[in-house]
Amino acid sequence: MPRHARGFDVQAAWDHLVRRDRRLGAWMRRIGPLPPEAGWRRSFDPVDALARAILYQQLSGKAASTIVGRVEAAIGSKRLHHDTLGRVDDATLRACGVSGNKTLALRDLAAREARGEIPDLRRMSYMDPDQIVEALVPVRGIGRWTVEMMLMFRLGRPDVLPVDDLGVRKGAQIVDGLELAPTPKLLAERGQVWGPYRTYASLYLWRIADGAGGDVTAPRTNRSQD
Question: Helices 198-209 and 166-176 meet at what angle, rounded to 10?
């Protein structure tokens, strides 16, 4: 089984997408090349990242950061794993501001890690994206979108299209001039042309949805070439 590198050649992705999709390519040329994600080069601990993703859910960044800091102080470590989280009881986590549901999710993650059910970074490097999703979504509080963000921004997998993400769907709506954002099913079908670089396409769709610098006016394209 081949080993997957963290990250991909963004120039190759650019060349492929502007050649395969003239509508998206016109937007890409206006926005300019997007560099490799910094997260592809940073050290990465999947269990710790999943624990932090659980703690950050449905909170502002500042509020979540405060709670994470309290948890780190309570366990005496900046590494959130079954051994360190096991140093405190549920009441202590609740006193740190962790909700009941998130406490249950952290305990489930820790238990699965202890049983060897959470693949480490080395194992993940030999797994396809769908295999990683299948391994992680059974964890309480971890959905497909959370795993897809890990695949894109930390593992640097090149061909991930988060079809349930509202920003990606909005970007596709703007690119294609649609009255409504495409459904996840329609976006999956639309995105087939972007493979094997659907991650890079998604990065542009987010930029487009955010206004591409405040201007969402469609670039001029030769419609006969679409």
Answer: 80
Handedness of CA 98, 103, 39, 185 (dihedral sign): negative
The answer to whether 84 and 45 have CB atoms below 8 angstroms apart is no
Residue 197 · residue 8 · CB < 8 Å: yes
Are 40 and 12 spatial neighbours (Cβ–Cβ below 8 Å)?
A: no
Can you tell me the distance from the alpha carbon of 171 to that of 201, in angstroms, rounded to the nearest whole number? 10
Question: Mean pLDDT throughout 125-133?
Answer: 97
Q: Side-chain half-sphere of 146: how many Cα atoms within 13 Å?
A: 22
- Distances 163 to 167, 169, 205 between C-alpha atoms, Å: 10, 7, 11
Structure tokens given for 50? 């999943």
Q: 62-71: which pairs have CB atoms within 8 A and are 24 or more residues apart?
A: 66/97, 67/96, 67/97, 67/98, 70/96, 70/97, 71/96, 71/98
Separation between Cα atoms, residue 34 and residue 200, nearest integer Å: 8
pTM, full prediction: 0.89
Compute the distance between CA of residue 85 and CA of residue 107 in angstroms, rounded to an integer. 8
Q: Quick one: pLDDT at residue 224?
A: 31
Q: What is the mean pLDDT of residues 136-140?
A: 97
Distance CA 213, CA 226 (A): 25
Asked whether residue 11 carries a pLDDT value surpassing 90, the answer given is: yes
